Amino acid sequence: MTSAAPVSAQEGLVGFASIISVYEHRVGHACRAVASHLPSLLKSFPAVGGTVLDNACGTGAATQEFLKVYPSAEVSAADLVPPMVQSFKTIIATDPTLAAQVKDLRLENGENLTYADNSFDAVLTNFGIFFFPDPVAGAKQIYRTLKPGGTAVVTLWKTFGFKPILWEVQQRIKPANPLTELPLMEPWCDPKKLEKVLTDGGFGSVEFSVVKEGMWGKDKADFVTILLENFGAMVARNWTDEEKAKLAYVTSQVVNEMQDKFCITDGEKVGCMMEAWAAVSSK
After folding, report:
1. Spatial separation of the C-alpha atoms in residues 257 and 235, rounded to whole Å
2. Residue 6 pLDDT more than 80?
3. How far is residue 233 from each of residues 77, 137, 162, measured CA to CA in Å?
4. d(CA 253, CA 220)
5. Spatial separation of the C-alpha atoms in residues 127 and 168, rounded to whole Å
6. FRET label pair with 48: which of 17, 159, 213, 262, CA 20 to 30 Å apart?
7. CB within 8 A of 125, min separation 6: which ones?
8. DSSP secondary structure letters along 183-207
9. CA distance linking residue 121 with residue 111, whole number of Å
């Protein structure tokens, strides 16, 4: 099978910025669900007070989930994508409680953070490190800004539950084409890659756990919409307009015919199971 053309971290960021308007619906809700597990991984975070950096914060999902467990924590947040930072600012502005909890929100590069050394009891990087052109530089910044004894949690996708659906769709529309891969994120599915990045960044041992959460639609039709929001970008490079025009119909057809094989359900909700790696390491 021919490999997909490599995608750089910078290309990934550009693509990420382009989907802000549908981010929460497309994949953000699954990232948020994974973020809800992160507080339980911090065994030494202060029960009262404490400082945390939401690194590559996006629209602030990790912050919001963290504060449900540690409401007295003081949060700083940073992201390199201006629309993401603006979206988070808008969320903060409409929530007085959140506004009191988030100390500052900065537009800055995770490879060159401006926070002082030894600032945080925890640094959370939820589905962000693979966007760094130099992830080791990013890991060094995480390590530098942690207090001694502080804990870093970094998440990555382990498996993508929508891929078998995409491949079935692809086999029906363009069977001779190499099966679509995710060249930016899939190399990170091997935890050894992240482990090396973190240890090269200064950390010692790294512990991994697996978090399972669904990518959900409110019903079958909504799940098909979520799939199309993801699939459109994945086939944009090498499908003809005629082939792309078939994508919506065939995706709906596959979900209808093969729901029991590829999907999970919860009442009216229909989705697919996603797995994430959560890496934990202390300074």
Report:
1. 22
2. no
3. 28, 28, 14
4. 11
5. 27
6. 213
7. 55, 56, 110, 138, 142, 152, 153, 154, 155
8. TTTGGGGSHHHHHHHHHHTT----E
9. 19
pLDDT tens sequence across 54-66: 999 999 999 999 9
Structure tokens at 67: 């504060």
Q: Helix crossing, 220-235 with 247-262: angle to 10°?
A: 120
Residue 173 token pair: 């529309």
Q: Fill in the DSSP letter of residue 28.
A: I
Task: Please state, in angstroms and rounded to a whole number, the distance separating the CA atoms of residues 245 and 156.
Answer: 32
- Return the DSSP state at 157: E
pLDDT at 69 over 60: yes
> Between the CA of residue 80 and those of 20, 113, 129, 246, what are the distances in Å?
13, 10, 12, 36
Nearest to 168 by CA among 256, 276, 81: 256
pLDDT in tens, 8-34: 444 444 444 444 567 888 888 999 999
Q: Does the pLDDT at position 219 exceed 50?
A: yes
Amino acid residing at 6: P
